[in-house]
Amino acid sequence: MTAPFWETKSLAAMTKDEWESLCDRCGKCCLVLLDEEETRRLYETNVACRLFDVKKRRCTDYANRTRRVKDCVALTPDNAGALDWMPESCAYRRLARGEGLPDWHPLITGTLKSVVDAGVAVGRAVSEAEVDDEDVWDYVVAVRPRARKKKRPAKRSGAL
Question: Mean of the pLDDT values across residues 47-73?
């Protein structure tokens, strides 16, 4: 039996379809993050990018997201391993670091439901369109230290 493409190809060598299939649709990269540079902490919120469909856990305008959302970061093979704010469970980040896919990943299980069953998917979230910028701190749900110092283009990050 042939090994799956994610075990035999580099991120850069993958086809567009292979690359896109790595996304498990957890939705975590589409949540607003607050970066407190002084303390080196990253605050996770349950505020989703205004283009994020919470029920489907996907972008409603994926093709135009970086034009429509100023702080949306397009994930590439070159930056997948360097974006330390991406979820630890992210397939792109894991593969860039030489790790395999988690056993709940849809490419392994054959179903997107496995992401929900594993408790990895975004559950309840509110659209940033419904939250004033000064109120985003009221939606912090987790805090984590930053692993290494990286320059970020903006204090808020949103959808990929």
Answer: 93
The residue ranges of DSSP E strands in the chain, in sequence order, are 31-36, 41-48, 52-53, 58-59, 126-127, 140-145, 156-157
Interval 136-157 mean pLDDT: 66
Separation between Cα atoms, residue 156 and residue 62, nearest integer Å? 19
pLDDT digits (tens, 9 = 90+) for 24-51: 999 999 999 998 888 888 999 999 999 9
Alpha-carbon gap, residue 12 to 96, rounded angstroms = 10
Give kind and range of the element (H or E) at residue 116. Answer: helix 113-117
Any idea what the Cα angle at residue 27 is, between residues 112 and 88, rounded to 5°?
A: 95
Distance CA 80, CA 91 (A): 9
CA-nearest of 36, 47, 14, 17 to 122 is 47
Q: What Rg, from alpha-carbon coordinates, does the chain have?
A: 16
End-to-end CA distance of the chain: give it in Å, rounded: 34
For residue 118, what are its two tokens? 């594993």
**20: DSSP letter:** H
